[in-house]
Amino acid sequence: MIRVLIAEDQALVGGALAALLGLEPDIEVVAVARDGAIAWERLGQGGIDVLVTDIEMPGMTGLELAQRVRDAALDVRVVVVTTFARGGYLRRALDAGARGYLLKDSPADKLAEALRSVHRGGRAIDPELAVEAWGEADPLTERERQVLRLAGEGRSAPEIAAHLNLSQGTVRNYLSEAIGKLGVGNRIEAHRLARQKGWL
């Protein structure tokens, strides 16, 4: 039996995934967590073979959750199920230790088969996305990404500085670096482009 934890902030989607996977004779959905922090807490209790996670969730993203699983050397395989058909997200997911990357509009039997494959030690990745993921490297550092993400939420430099425990000058430097690397005119354009590429 493959014991699965689903991390999905949209209740309808999480419930649908649980119901679909629950129809499989060899898969048991142990729990559905509404965000990354709750999922991380549940993982700490053990008894999970595969984590199925969305990317964007409040508190802790699916990519941050995958990274924690990898850093803690948990015996849990991670499969990302998302709406983001972008190579940048796939590349970051793989870097964070994910073994699978599927789109939410994939057929239900494809998801179940992907979980079986990943549970056996394999990978389950859309081949077209895999080609795109290695087409263009992500130029941003993790800190530039954090600052740009907060700027895209409309936060000011002082607010970003307080949130990340940095000086305002350092925040402005990170924003300037990100804008320069992306070849755009301001932080709004930088955020839009980085999001479009899947780098945020």
UniProtKB/TrEMBL annotation:
<dbReference type="InterPro" id="IPR000792">
    <property type="entry name" value="Tscrpt_reg_LuxR_C"/>
</dbReference>
<dbReference type="InterPro" id="IPR016032">
    <property type="entry name" value="Sig_transdc_resp-reg_C-effctor"/>
</dbReference>
<keyword id="KW-0597">Phosphoprotein</keyword>
<dbReference type="Pfam" id="PF00072">
    <property type="entry name" value="Response_reg"/>
</dbReference>
<keyword id="KW-0238">DNA-binding</keyword>
<dbReference type="InterPro" id="IPR036388">
    <property type="entry name" value="WH-like_DNA-bd_sf"/>
</dbReference>
<dbReference type="GO" id="GO:0003677">
    <property type="term" value="F:DNA binding"/>
</dbReference>
<dbReference type="GO" id="GO:0006355">
    <property type="term" value="P:regulation of DNA-templated transcription"/>
</dbReference>
<dbReference type="InterPro" id="IPR001789">
    <property type="entry name" value="Sig_transdc_resp-reg_receiver"/>
</dbReference>
<feature type="modified residue" description="4-aspartylphosphate">
    <location>
        <position position="54"/>
    </location>
</feature>
<feature type="domain" description="HTH luxR-type">
    <location>
        <begin position="133"/>
        <end position="198"/>
    </location>
</feature>
<dbReference type="InterPro" id="IPR039420">
    <property type="entry name" value="WalR-like"/>
</dbReference>
<feature type="domain" description="Response regulatory">
    <location>
        <begin position="3"/>
        <end position="119"/>
    </location>
</feature>
<dbReference type="Pfam" id="PF00196">
    <property type="entry name" value="GerE"/>
</dbReference>
<dbReference type="GO" id="GO:0000160">
    <property type="term" value="P:phosphorelay signal transduction system"/>
</dbReference>
<dbReference type="InterPro" id="IPR011006">
    <property type="entry name" value="CheY-like_superfamily"/>
</dbReference>
<protein>
    <submittedName>
        <fullName>Response regulator transcription factor</fullName>
    </submittedName>
</protein>
